[in-house]
Structures are given as C-alpha cells and as structure tokens.
Amino acid sequence: MTGPLTTEPRRVDLEAVLRELPGSPEPTTQPGALGRRLELAQLKRAAQLLGASRGARLADMFVLPSAPAEAGGDGGLTLHLVFGLDQDRRYLLLQAPLSGRSYAAISEVAPACFVEECEIFELWGIKPTGGHPLNRVLLAPGADSAPPLRSGSPGAPRSRRGVPTEVRAPHVVRGEAFEFPVGPVRGVGQESLYMGLVTTGEEVLDAYLAWFHKHRGIEHQVVGMDPEMALFRVERCEGPGAVGNGLAFARAVESASGIVVPAGAERTRLVALELERLYNHAAAMAALCQSTGLGVGQAQVEIILENFLRLNAAVFGHRYLFGVVAVGGVRRGCDGATLSEGLSALCASVRQIGSALLGTNSFVDRLEAAGVVDAEAAARLGLVGPVARGSGADLDVRRDHPWSAGDSHSGLEVATAVNGDVLSRLQVMLQEVDESERLIHRWLQSGELIDVADALPTPAGPAPERGERRGLGWCESVRGEALSWVQLDHDGKVAGARLRPASVRNWRAFDDALRSRNVFTDVAIIEASFWLTVAGFAR
Amino acid sequence: MNVLESAAPNSRPVPVRWSQNPKADSVSSEVARVSAELRETISRLFGRSLHIRTIDTGSCASCESEIRLLTAPHYDLHRLGLFFTPAPRHADCLLVTGPGALAMDHALQATYEAMPDPKIVVTVGACALGGVFVPDRFTHGGVGRLLPIDVVIPGCPPSPLALLQGLLVGVDRLHASINPDRFRFSGASRP
Ligand code: SF4
Fold first, then answer.
1. Which of B123, B124, B127, B152 to mutate to test the pocket of ligand 1 (most atoms within 8 A of CB)?
2. For residue A425, what pLDDT is reported?
3. What is the ipTM of this complex?
4. Which of A160, A302, A303 has the CB atom closest to B102's CB atom?
C-alpha cells in the first residue's frame, strides 16, 4: 500500500509577489500586517497576482474617506483590499485612492469580493465596471439616491416613511419554478431576513437572500465617537459575537494608537472569546435539534445553553459577555474559581449529548449530504470559521494570525472535516468545544488572568500619538475571522471604521449550500449549521 | 380543550341578540349583560393565556436568543399559558426587538395591523427603548414612535426572567385594557 497522498499547499513566495506588485510600501504598517499604496488602475492586476499565488486569500474590501493629508485630498475616498497571507502569518492591505465614481471590478479576478462591491455601490455610489450585475445587499430597493460624496458620507437610505414599491429584488424565474417568499418576518424568535426560495414544489433550486431589512449603519454611526463609545455600538452589531467583533475593533484601535495591552488583560479577554464560542456552539446544536424535530435533544442542549449563559453571567457579569472587552484591555476581571468549577461539567455534557446525537441515526441522516459547500466554493467565496473548516479549509486565525508575540494559542489543534455538509460542521463545532475547554483551563492554570477582585491594569505603551492613525484588528470569532479597520483623527476620535464580522463572509455561501439538492425542510437545518446572524451581516 | 370551550360563548355573534331585542331601551341593558359576559369570558381567556408574535426590527440577535430561551426547559413559557404563534392573526401580543430599522417599517406596520384587537405591544431590550441607537438615516432609534407601546422590558438583552415578568405585566395590561364597548363596533381603534 502506498502512503496517503499529501498535497503540500504551495507556499507563496511572498517576497516575489510583493516585488512584482505595483505600488509603494505603506509606511504605517503594524506587526502582522503589511501595507501597500497603489494606483487605482493597478489594483485589479495586484488582486490577480495575489490570487494566482494561491497563498493569498481576499479577506475584505471596503471604501473609506482618505485622510486629508493623503493623495486625493479633502473629501476623497480610498479603496482598500485586505488579503490574508495565512501561511506567512500576515495580512496585506492594499490602498488605492479613488479618482472617479468607478473602478475596474475586482470580483472578476477575486469572486469573493462580489458582495463588497455591491455594498460599496449602495453606500458610496461607486460602481465597478465590468463584472456581474449588482445585487441588493445593504439598502432596500428605492434607496439609490446617493448624494454627492462631499463630506465623504455614504449614500442616504430611502425616505423615512411609505410602503416600498418593491419589497424584494426583481428576480427572473423561468420554467416551472417560482419564487417562494419567506420573510422578512420569519419564525418566532428569528431574525428578520427575506429568503426567496426558488422551487418547483419541494426541492430548493435556488435562493435569493435580502439582508437589508436590518441594516443599522453602525460603521457610519461610530464616526466621530470616542473609541470606547464606538466599542459599545460595535459589540451590539452582532450580540452573539460581541466579544469577537469587539475584540477585533479594540485591537484595531490599540494598534492605531500604539496601546500595549497587558498580558493578563489580553488573556482574560481571550477567555471571554472562548466562552462565547462555547455557548454559541451549544446554541447551534440546539437549533440543529429543533430543526430536525428532535425535541428531547433540543431540550437537553437548551439546558446546557442556559447554563453556559448563566456561567458567563457569573464569571464576567453578562450573559452575552457584553462590556468585557475594552480598548486597552478588559473592563472587568473574571471570576476564575467559578469558571473552573462550572466549565468542565458543562463541556462534558456537551460531549455526552454530542455523542448521543451522532449515534442517533434519524438525526445523522438528516445532516448528511445536506447543505453541501465544497472546498472549491469555500475557497472561491472566501469563507471563514467553522463553515470553511467543515469544507476542509485549514484556516483558523488563532493559529494563522497570532495577535501578539507571546502567543496564547500554541498547540491549538484546528478542527476540520472534509464533506462540507451539515454533519461536518457539527463535527467541527464539537471538536472546537474540546479545544476551547482546553485553552481556558490552560489559561486558568497560568494564573495570569485578571480576577474580579484585582485592580484593572493600565495599558502600557507610548503616550498616544497625535495625528491621524490607522490600524487593522483581527481575531477568530465564533463564526470565523473577524476583521476591523479603524482610522482615528487628531483628537483620537473615530474618523472611519470598517467592521467585518464573519457573518459578512459566510452568508454568501448560504445559497450555494441550499442549491445542493435540498428540500424546504432542510433550509432551517442548514441555517442552524451555519449559525450566522443577519445582524452581523447587516451591521 | 379548555380554551376552545371557553372560546365558544365568546364567538357567539352579538348581532343575533340585538335582533332578538327590538326594543331600543332594552338594548343598553342587553349590551351591558353581553358585555359583562364578554368581560368575564375574556378575563378567563386572557387571564391565563396569551399568544405572542415576535418581530425583529434590527436587533443584534441577542434579544432573539433570550426570547427563544423562553420555551427552553428552564423557563417553559407554555406552562404559564403563554404561547408563541407564527401568525400575527392569532396573536394578542407583539414582542418588538431592535431600534426600528427604516427598512422594517412596512413589515412592522403590516404585522401590527394583521393582529386582531385587543392587542398589546411589548418592546424588548434597550434598542427598542431608544437606549442604543439615535434616530438617523438608518434607524428610528427606537420603536416608541412607530407603535403604541404598552409595556417596555429594559435590558440589553433582558434575561428570559425579565421577559416573563414583562409578559405577565402585559397580560394584566391587556386584561385591563379590554373595554367591552369596543366589541360593539368592528374596527374600533385602541385608546
Ligand atoms: S437591546 Fe441589546 S441585546 Fe437587545 S437587540 Fe438591542 S443591542 Fe441587542
């Protein structure tokens, strides 16, 4: 017998690619991230080069006002592309000042950023040339009245009142198929979302999703705020991902203003992040049981979920861990004794129920081959988190993009599965529960955590600089890589912010998953296995 | 079934009794009698049972999570006679979360209008109260100006226990707000 075929991923010769890349290095770079400034006309070519090198993953694309000192001057806008160079443990940020109202569509060479191109058009009125016709993403139909971008403000949403003439995008459905509308008001206790399920009766042939009903424009609301105040809103853009998104944002601010977070505070907020992962995975399991009609399993997992939330409240003072992360550290310490007492029992019950569920054939049958996202689609769409890992992508920001030199995640085993179906995603979640438990216990034993009784350490580092500063922040949130880009003005207020919760990425694979020969009743199962929030997408 | 049996006298059409009563001056006493019957039935009906529809107008999904947990074993809403219903036409109570995103205006109004009278609106969370967002181009900053609010449940998010307490206040409120005279006219509006 021959040994297993190992496909060694081709290492990016980053230096070669960077040498070939047009543009000039951006001086304000930070550890773990490179910057490069180029001309708008060079951007597509650069994206193509990076895409061809296979080690670069297009992680985000957005538009923000240029700093007054930059080329393009007052009121100008800059297009940003963020690439994850995962094997090189760095991010690469490409910035190109926009000169007109258009740019060459990047999605032609990097399909992952199609949703972002739609967002940019809706919010800023800047259109990609070439590429696909744009979809409705963040603003409801009829909201196209983007005003001139004098103050660098985004387009105005539709007028305050009145019935929209059109509540869904005009989709053309041919033949016997029709579009079965679900939403935006859906089941009890579910978020608002419009799903147009294209069907001939039972099988879902295609799906159109509209997330815009919940758009709150948080990225625009935080402009002009103190970073601390902005963090309050950022946490509330996606409640069940408050720690992950808050941490990415706080890190962006810290790296912009040169704040060094004390090691204990950093560890403490990582504990909160893992607790967030644990309760979310339990919640996803409960939703999986509910959608498969497994009432007993659902009740049992809900007991665990409630107990996780109560543990959160006992340890950090909030059931959903709001307000734990602060710019420069944490806003409160954790009750380590309570945590170590409660954690093991809860994780053990997750394991117990997990194996009971995986031994229940009627349950596993519903999960197998449902909602398949193959590895190719996961890479093409730039998926992250458990959804990507369930499709075999070996990507975890905790391991691939360590935030600080004293890495807290050494020895992290990244759980992956290969089938890309609902079952694979459940398996990934179950393995992640074990990893999170192991990490938390290790950090508890290290004795470095800040206890509730301790005084909070003050962040170290040089006195905050004056002038415009920028920073990128990231972390592996529950749903995958969360990114944040922050620009601070002279007074240290937020001059521009980009939030990229993992939900923004992973929703774009949802219709692919639905298309893989599923029937109506599978939709809820697939949605539970993705475990995304509309709020995170429509931030 | 308790609910169905007690619903029967309630659904007996009032106009039949009107037609059986040709004398105008006896109408008022008959109305009073029927009203008393209605009041008694409805107090029995709503005193221990309430059907709830939820709507999300831009929440962060945590309030939704807490609402879902109301049916979990720790809280088990059903044992209190409170039920979730997917159909607004069956709902007595609307639980509203979120700050009132502009794009949800139409859906919110349509849901509210589809609910039969009498109905109560309970807002859930700081967002809906106006404590998280300010009115701007994206949201109303709260739902207070969009619907007549009967009960507010503060918290970010309010725990399931807080939700239960709010709902119990809501049941009382619904009970107290029932004015039998309203049932004489179809489409009577709420105070
Ligand atoms: S009140 Fe708080 S928890 Fe509830 S939706 Fe608003 S931000 Fe989220």
1. B127
2. 92
3. 0.85
4. A160
